[in-house]
Structure formats: structure tokens, C-alpha cells
Amino acid sequence: MIQSMTGFGKATAELSNKKITVEVKSLNSKQLDLSVRIPSVYKEQELNVRSLIARRLERGKVDFAIYVENTSKETTSQINQNVLESYYNQIKNSSEKLGIDVPSDWFQVLLRLPDVLKYEAQDADEEEWKVVADVINQALDQLVEFRKQEGKMLEDLFIQKISNIGNLMTAIEPFEGERVEKVKARIIEALEKIENFDYDKNRFEQEMIYYIEKLDINEEKARLKNHLKYFLETLNDTSGQGKKLGFITQEMGREINTTGSKANHVQMQQLVVQMKDELEQIKEQVLNVL
Known about the structure:
By secondary structure, this protein is α+β, with helices and mostly antiparallel strands. It is built from 8 helices and 6 strands, in the order βββαββααβααααα.
């Protein structure tokens, strides 16, 4: 079963003094393009988090973030009294020297200055990290499930498009014999228009056979049939089918293009155009397969 590279997952957990929220989303990309935002209290676990995401998601442009909301009534920020007093004295002295009025609201000014507020970040203990790790896995599970649902939709689309291409190739067959006769009649008609011209009919038949063999598309049909079958078989691989499916569609396109160049028949060329349209729709969606 295939998976899409598009997905979203979110999970939360409540601790005694904080709420942990993990969000992860992914889009299609040739490799793993990972962006991680982790609060400083969990920074030492960043390598482990990156390793986990790489193992679970494999490919895609992934944005991962952990948000911490403080639910405690106690604040984690403290006023640095020494720094506050120093700023106050400096502003007051500057006001007297320069003849500038002091602020009407001291605290509004002082609390915005650097280092006046200090934050006491507590290190996460092992029990807290276990909770966070569990939330991360829940979010990743959601994203993987989302990918599987998207993958099922893509799989249904691919099966339909592959069937359409096979049916169009079958629809070409009735025109093959008609095409040969038309080509032969066109050449004979052109030869007959040349006055006082005689030709060796046996040699003509030999050349016709050689020419018609060049227009034969049985090999292209056989190879395209094998490619269609292999594409469907690859859909059932365990994982990582995206790149392989892309290579198979290239081979399918090669056989369809060759069939078109050999067509020499209006209805056959129209069917080839329809096959190309079906194949392009497959190629567009294959880019989103993991």
C-alpha cells in the first residue's frame, strides 16, 4: 500500500504546571527536508527527535514544533532588581544633565529594557520527557494515518488511470491492419501517377514489407503492457514506492511516444494523445507518493 507525503498530526498532554502541544505537517519533497522548533528546555533531545522523525516519515518537507503553555499560577519570570535600579539611576541622571523630563510611567519604560526580566527555565526531568515523547509519537501516528488515507485515494486514481491506458492501447488494435493497407495504397497511388514509370513488383513487395515492419508497434504494446503490470505490482510494495513509480512512468511514456511516432493514422494518433493525457495525470500525482 502506498502512502502520500502530505499529512498533518497534532497531539497534546497536560502536566501539573504546563500544557504540551506537538504539531507536525509534511508536504512532498525528493528527500527529507526537516524543520524542527523545540523549546530550550527540551533542546538536549533534539537529535533524538530528528532521528525519530527521519525513521518514521522517511521523505517529505516536514515542519515539526513543540509548544509549551504555562498553566501554573506562578510566573517563571522574575524582576532583576539590581538591573532595574541601575537603569532607573542612569535615566534619572541623564534627565538632570540633559534637561529632559523623566518618564511619566517608569515601569512601562524600565520593564522593556534588556535583562530587567529574567526567566528561570526548569530542566525537564525523565518523567516529563517520557510524556513529551509519547505526545510526539501520537502526533506522528496521526500524520502517518493521514498519509495512508491520502495514499489510498492516490492508489485508486492510479489503478483507474492504468486501466484507461490499457483500454486505449487495446482500442488501437483494430486500426493497425487498416493503417497498413492505407499506407500501401497511398504508395501505389503515388507510383501510378508517375508517367512512363515501371517497377519490379516483387522488389516493391519486399520494400513494402520492410517499411511496414518499421511501423509495427507489437513490441511497444508488449513492453507497455509489462510496464502497466509492473506499476500495479509496485503499488503493493511495503514502502518507498514513489521513486520507483516515477521511473516506471518514464518507461511508459517512452513506449507511448514511440507508438505515436509510428502511428501514421489519425484515429491511432488521437488515442495516443489520450494515453499521454492519462499518463501526465499519473506523473503529477506520483510526485506526492512516499
